[in-house]
Amino acid sequence: MTLFVFLAVLSAAAMHAIWNALVKVHLDRFLSITLMTLGTGLAALPALAFVEVPKPEVWPYIIASVIFHMGYRTFLVGAYQAGDFAQTYPLARGAAPLLSALGGIFLLGEVPAPLAIAGIVMLSIGTLVMSFRGGAHLERLNLRAVGFALGTSIFIASYTLSDGTGARLAATAQSYAAWVFVCDALSALALCVAFRGPRSLAVLARDWKAGLFTGALSGAAYWIVMWAMTKAPIASVASLRETSILFAMLISVLALGEKMTVWRAAAALGIVAGVAALRMG
Questions:
Q1: pTM of the full predicted structure?
Q2: Which alpha helices (DSSP H) does the chain contain, by range?
Q3: Which among 249, 269, 270 has a CA at the least distance from the CA of 260?
Q4: What angle do the packed helices 234-241 and 143-169 form, to 10 degrees?
Q5: Are the C-beta atoms of 240 and 10 separated by less than 8 Å?
Q6: 1 Cβ partners below 8 Å, 6+ apart?
Q7: DSSP per residue, 7-23
Q8: What b-and-e string marks burial along 204-236, b requiring 16 or more CB atoms within 10 Å of the CB?
Q9: Residue 280, C-beta contacts closer than 8 angstroms, at least 6 positions apart
Q10: Considering the chain, what percentage of its residues have pLDDT values greater than 90?
C-alpha cells in the first residue's frame, strides 16, 4: 500500500466517523439509515452523466452489493434494537476486517503479507476492546444482539469483497461507485415504502438537508475506499477503514467531553499499532 493510498483511506475513516457524529435527525434507526442512503444516491446522481455505464460483467457485482447493503442495514437496525449501540456497532465493525481478510484469502486468492495480517488482527482486537471497554459490560450483550451484530459484520465483509472486485473490473472506481450508490438508494427507497408506506417519504423529506449532507460525506468516504481497493489488497484497506472507531473515540473525548479510560487508551494503542503494521506490511 503506497503512502498516498494509506493516507486516503485514513481520511475516509475520519470522514466516516464525522458523518456518524453529525447524524442528529429525530428519526428512528431505520428511517435515519434510509435517509442517509438516499442522500448518497442523490449526491451521486449527477455523476452518472460523466462516468461510463458499467459493462455486463460488472452488473452482477453491483446487484450483489445492493443486496448485501440491504442485508447490512436490516441487521444493523436489528442490532440497534436488540442491544446497546455503543457495543453492537463496534462489534460489527471489529469482526468485519477479519472476515474480509479470510474472504480475500479463500475466495480471491489475495494473501496479505505476514506483517499486514498482524496489523489486521491488532486493528480488529483494538476495535473490539474499544467496543466492550475492557469487558465491563459484556453481560449486557444478549445472544440476540450478538447474532445481529455478527450478521452485520458478515454483510459488511460481503459487500467489501463484492465492491472491491467490482471496482477492479469496472472502467473506473468512480463509475462503479456512482452506479452502486444510485442503485442502492433506489432499493432503499423501495424497501422504505414497502415497510413504512408512502407516508414515510414525507417524514424523510423534512430532514432532506441532513440526509444530503451526511449522505454526500458517507458516499465520498466509501468511494475513496472502493478506489483504494483497486490499488491495494482488499483486506488491508478494509481493516484500515475501521480506524473510524478510533476517530470516533477522539471526537467523543475532545469534542463531546467523554472520559478517556484506561481500556479506551489500551484499545487506541492497539489500533495505532495495527495501523503501523499495515503501513509497514
A1: 0.85
A2: 3-22, 29-44, 59-82, 85-107, 114-132, 143-169, 173-196, 199-205, 208-228, 234-241, 244-254, 262-280
A3: 249
A4: 130
A5: yes
A6: 231, 232, 233, 236, 237, 240, 278, 279, 281
A7: HHHHHHHHHHHHHHHH-
A8: beebeebbbbbbbbbbbbbbbbbbbbbebbbbb
A9: 115
A10: 39
Torsion of Cα atoms, 243 then 5 then 11 then 272, to 10°: 30
Q: What is the pLDDT of residues 126-149, one digit of tens each?
A: 877 776 664 445 555 567 877 888
User: What grid cell was written down for 20?
Assistant: 456518524
Residue 26 per-residue DSSP state: S
What does the block give as the cell for 116? 499486514
**Residue showing cell 453491483:** 62
Angle between helices 262-280 and 244-254 (to 10 degrees): 140
Cell of 143: 445472544
